[in-house]
Write a structure and sequence with these properties.
Length: 420
């Protein structure tokens, strides 16, 4: 256990508000709404006047290039040391060859695989570990299909917390290895992600661990929001028409939407791009709820994009809310389309993403072909995880090396037989 100190609460947070019934709670160590139960995810609300005045005294451009440049917009006590790892401020690349290949005006790729543990989840975990410390916990746990886990393990190593991680059986080996090397206690649950999630929740209650699960913890989406804040700031007003994001639980896209809305509210941008949320055909409950206007019906999951294989998403309401607020759309893509996007994004866009990392690119292609996105529009795709996270899928997408004897004649035969 690390020493328990009392920290001042974050002054910029005004309250936590239930997404369903609107009940409001003062800031504190809370998970979901007490009257709505698990479904009642709490949204963190801020004092934007205070934030605007702080930002006018210490302008953003003078600050460190990581997510803590947005301190006033994050729900963490100012007294707590930030982790040393550089999370966020990931590069946005213009990809003109990819745009030409897809036949669209402009494609930007924001490479979130460049975060310390190589996925977007580092944004959420860095807020999660600080909230654990703020509330006096020495231990933190999560259930994850992989990336939330590896990022929690890495950020725990950076802050001295002990981490317990519940992974479903099918989590890819590189992700599990990442957890182990960072010193997490890894519990491989012989079951689905949903079962791992429930076991983790029960264990947190039993053992008094802090629960870093974006399905119940109100603060994590605030970390994810930093990608939206960055998109607004890094592009300096030259916003794309669309921002494309892969969707599993729905926390990532709702965070990005919230961040963009806040930057509009604070006057950094004058409009919010339309959000395109992309799910895999084999795990598309949020797309179905979006299309039908009905409540979410949990589904089976069958896709190689493990990071978005979520059959019972918890953040579906706010995902749909943010997509509608932006006049956005949703679309689903097949595993073959995802594998093709892995190849295209790497070969033509020069960014290597894992399957869920490039699902947005697969969705973009389909949205252009089906006329949802116009050819004279511009798009930013968030590449949410690095390709080395899932070697097996990458190999499936990439093909084989050519075997040659060390002779020029043999080389010539190999090259002439090769079709790329
Ligand atoms: C978690 C994750 C997503 C989706 O985020 P949700 O909040 O589950 O919608 C997308 N891509 C990668 C690589 C992820 O790890």
């Amino acid at each position: 256990m690390i020493a328990l100190t009392k920290y001042a609460p974050p002054v910029q947070v005004t309250r936590l508000k239930c997404e369903i019934c609107g009940a409001s709670y003062p800031h504190g160590n809370l998970y979901t709404c007490s009257s709505c139960g698990d479904e009642g995810i709490l949204d963190v609300e801020y004092d934007y006047e205070r934030i605007a005045s702080a930002l006018s005294k210490s302008p953003l451009q003078d600050r460190d290039q990581n997510i803590w440049r947005y301190n006033e917009l994050l729900p963490v006590s100012a007294d707590i040391a930030r982790p040393r790892l550089f999370v966020g401020w990931t590069p946005i690349y213009d990809a003109p060859r990819l745009a030409k290949y897809f036949g669209i005006k402009q494609i930007l790729l924001k490479d979130d695989g460049r975060n310390p543990t190589n996925s977007f989840k580092d944004r959420a975990s860095s807020v999660g570990v600080l909230k654990a410390i703020e509330f006096g916990f020495g231990e933190i746990a999560c259930a994850s299909t992989g990336n939330a886990a590896s990022s929690l393990a890495g950020l725990s190593a950076a802050t001295g917390l002990k981490s317990y991680i519940f992974v479903p059986e099918r989590a890819p080996e590189p992700k599990v290895t990442q957890l182990l090397i960072f010193g997490a206690t890894v519990l491989r649950v012989l079951g689905t992600y949903e079962q791992a999630f429930e076991l983790c929740k029960a264990a947190c209650e039993k053992y008094g661990w802090y629960n870093r699960n974006s399905g119940v913890n109100p603060f994590l989406v605030e970390g994810k929001k930093t990608a939206g804040l960055e998109i607004a700031e890094q592009l300096n007003g030259n916003l794309p028409d669309w921002v494309v994001v892969s969707v599993g639980d729905g926390c990532t896209i709702s965070g990005i939407g919230k961040g963009l809305q806040e930057m509009k509210r604070l006057g950094f941008i004058d409009r919010v791009p339309r959000l395109l949320g992309v799910q895999a055909e084999g795990a598309r409950p949020i797309v179905d709820a979006f299309m039908s206007g009905k409540d979410l019906a949990p589904s089976e999951t069958k896709t190689l994009a493990d990071s978005i294989a979520v059959g019972t998403p918890r953040n579906w309401r706010r995902a749909i809310k943010q997509i509608r607020l932006s006049s956005g759309e949703m679309i689903a893509v097949s595993d073959d389309e995802i594998l093709e996007a892995m190849r295209t994004t790497a070969r033509i866009g020069a960014v290597f993403g894992e399957p869920a990392g490039v699902t947005g690119v697969a969705g973009l292609k389909k949205a252009i072909e089906s006329g949802v996105i116009n050819r004279n529009e511009s798009v930013l795709c968030v590449i949410t995880g690095n390709g080395l996270k899932d070697i097996q899928s990458a190999k499936q997408a990439a093909g084989q090396a050519l075997d040659v004897n060390p002779s020029l004649a043999d080389l010539a035969t190999a090259l002439s037989n090769h079709v790329n």
